[in-house]
Every structure is written in structure tokens, then in C-alpha cells.
Amino acid sequence: MIKQICTVALIGRPNVGKSTILNNILDFNLAIVTNQAQTTRDQIRGIYNDEKYQIIFVDTPGIHKAEYLISEKLNEKSYSALQEVDLVLFVCPADQEIGKGDQYIIKRINDLNIQNKIAVISKIDLIDDRSELNKKAKKLKEIGFKRILGVGNNLKQTYSDLIEEIKPFCYESEALYEEDQYGDITLRFMAKEIIREAAIENLYEEIPHSIAVEINEFIEPDEDAFPYKIDATIYVKKESQKAIVIGKSGSMIKKISVLSRQKMINTFQHKVNLVIKVKVDDNWVNNEQKIKKLGY
């Protein structure tokens, strides 16, 4: 099928709303979203389709100061997307100043002489004073953006406006994905992310962002009567963190398991048997082999 095609990268600091933008455009929770920074660890492709257009969005990890090897790897994933797409959306939130982290990313975009770029001010629903938004837009124009849009949660028209702004960058080509495909991720990957999301949401005050999840076994049912069988491991850096993740009498890991299983059932539209273990790996964030093994 011939369509108008465009590949678009969502770039910005951690926790600026890139994944929320993707999920709102697709009207589907493809990427996990939490209040914690550095939630996204992979390039996730989400596919928007209408009668004439197919727009492939590449959600990237938030670019941040690298303290560990895992951080360097995540930043590399984000920067690599800049030269692999037709259009870059630089995302910065309405409720924060344009700081050094933003300016560093913008400099990288400008150094690569990327002309196809749009600045997207996210979370505009959090700002009542429109003059503040105008100031931010003016600053973004001063640092090289000709096109600037705002989007906000529950402001559906803003996402429709963003799609319309992207369409002039599209070109005629054979469609890359099927009409009914939301993304390029597998159910196995979704299971991993669902567990990580549940862990982050319930442990963000106690555990730093050093949790990783590995799917050890993922068996799809060969008949409707049988459930998915999923065996997973949550990795932490310290024994004390393991105790927190397990919780008193296993209460926390039970809570994470129940929440994860229920979301998988809703997402997969099928019964799920889920077993989650917790292990300590004190240096996984700096070990290249282990980082690769965990899929990063």
C-alpha cells in the first residue's frame, strides 16, 4: 500500500513527556509512563495511521548526565535516532525552564545541522499563565526553532494539531507497517516493561533507578484454554534493595506481581501465569555483557 510516510524522533531530557505524547497520539499505552526520570530505556516505535499517512514515531530514552555505562548506552540510543529519521521533535516541558540539559541537546541537534525539527512544549495543561508559554516559545525561536507547538494531557486537539504539523514532512512510499499495527515491540518486551513500570511506581521512593527486568521464559498458549506462562527476574544492586522489593512477608513483590499480571491480562486479552523472582547484581549498570543480556 502506498502512503505518505515520515519517521519522527522524540528527543529530550528524562521525564519531559515524550512517552505521554506517543501514547496520546496512538490512543494506546504503548510506552510505559511513570513520574520517575529515565523510565524509557529503549527506542520504541509507535505507528500512527490514517487513510493517507503513516507516521512512525521513535520514542527515545531521556538524555541525561551519564553516571554509569548503562546511562552512556541509553544516551547513545537517543543520539543515534537524530540521524536516522526524517524529522526531530525536541520536547521540553511547560513547567520547567530551558536549562543546561536542554541547551546541550539543542546544541547537538544544531551541530548536526538538522533542518527538519519542531520544538514541542509538553504539559501545557499545567500552566495557567499563557504569557509564560509565550516566553518559552520566544526563547525556543531564538535558539533555532521555526516551528513550535504545545501539547497537554487531555487536550486532544493539541495532538491532532501536531500530526497536521508533521504531515508536510512526509513523502510517498510503500507503507512500512500494517494498518492495524500500533508499534514494533513484541509481547515479551511488553511484559518486561509492564513489570518494570509496576516496580517503579511502587518503589520510586525507596529504590533508585537501578532496577532491571529480565524475562527468563515466555511461553505463548497454543490453545485458548491455556494461559501465557511468564517467568521474570527483577535485578537490584544491593541486598538491602532486594529486601525492599520483596517486602515484609513478600507483600511488595506480591503487589508488583498482581498489578503486572492484571495489566498483562488486559493488554494481551488472555489469561496469564506470572512468576517474578528478585536477584542482586551489584554491577549490572557498568557491565557491558550484562547490559546487553538485559536488552539495553
TrEMBL record:
Region (G2): 38-42
Residues annotated as signal peptide: none
Region described as G5: 151-153
Chief location of this protein within or outside the cell: cytoplasm
Binding-site positions, GTP: 12-19, 59-63, 122-125
Domain Era-type G: 4-172
Highest rank taxon of the organism: Bacteria
Bilayer topology: Peripheral membrane protein
Subcellular location(s) per record: Cytoplasm; Cell membrane
Region (G1): 12-19
Residue ranges, annotated region (G4): 122-125
Region spans: G3: 59-62
Domain (KH type-2) ranges: 203-282
InterPro entries: G_ERA_dom, GTP-bd, GTPase_Era-like, KH_dom-like_a/b, KH_dom_type_2, KH_sf_prok-type, P-loop_NTPase, Small_GTP-bd
PROSITE patterns in alphabetical order: G_ERA, KH_TYPE_2
Keywords for this protein: Cell membrane, Cytoplasm, GTP-binding, Membrane, Nucleotide-binding, Ribosome biogenesis, RNA-binding, rRNA-binding
Family: Belongs to the TRAFAC class TrmE-Era-EngA-EngB-Septin-like GTPase superfamily. Era GTPase family.
Function text: An essential GTPase that binds both GDP and GTP, with rapid nucleotide exchange. Plays a role in 16S rRNA processing and 30S ribosomal subunit biogenesis and possibly also in cell cycle regulation and energy metabolism.
HAMAP family membership: GTPase_Era
Subunit structure: Monomer.
Entry protein name: GTPase Era
The species this protein was found in: Metamycoplasma equirhinis
Gene this protein is translated from: era
